[in-house]
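Explain this record to help learners:
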Amino acid sequence: MKILCYEPLFLKKNILKVNKYFDLCFSKNNSKEFDQIIGIFTRLSNFLSFNDLKKFKNLKYIITPTTGLNHLELNSLSNKIKIFSLKSSDKRMQEINSTSEFTITLILLAARKIVDFITCKKFNPNRYQFKTFQFKNLTVGIIGFGRIGSKVAQILKKIGFNVLIYEKNKKKILPKYNFVSLKKLLRNSDIVSIHINYVNKNKNFINKKNLIFLKKESILINTSRGEVICEKDLVNFLKNNKISKAFLDVISDEQNQFKIKKNLLFTVSKDKLIIFPHLGGATIDAMHLTENIVIDDFIKFMDKKYKNNLLDD
């Protein structure tokens, strides 16, 4: 039996761990091997559709070092396949700060209008061309107070920003932070940063019904998942100057090159919208850590099956 790697494992020790039970293979097009594939390892770069997955008749495991699963279209396979992924509640995830650090980077760029100066077509020595303020006079709104949102809020408070937070889960509310309604957050924030998980109820969570409350000078940042924003509405607001700018590290269907080419976001000029290729978690040390977490969980599961004589043939 084999584990098909859509992307290579970074660490040799993890290759050896997997090889304890299965052979690793890297060919995605060898139909002769489909029946031998019992597991798949993939990161975010590949979208695996229901039709892709159902080719593997004996598929039982998917190993993916990601918190979101929007790159997997499981449908009726959900109950047949065990997923080994990252969970924000896992204590081991507290060591991983790359997405929160990247978000802070974008917020600082936005606060001091660095990108505005960079994207100017001609050098202008006028340092007053774009108005900026000290951090203590700027308000950042954090939508979602999970693992990443809470870290971002903590750092922002330490360096002097005013911070507003919207969180639906009342159990996460802490007295030392300023929790407000979504409407109040949008109306009073100079910069808004999105940190909610992508589940069906959060699809198009940010749309024209709430974008309308943003200040005209505000900047929207998304390092969560592209699907939480209604991109058509965002494009309209940017093109009609109803909001100042957006920095997106994620867009919807980002693994699908055909859909990306048709995405309306790319019709917006770069002075209004900057799109990054999902850089948030893409630091070498973070990717090593996340790979370790999911591979270790997978091997512990297999060790237990082997011990109980339940190992697959």
Notes: The longest strand covers residues 37-41. The CA atoms of residues 235 and 265 lie 6 Å apart.
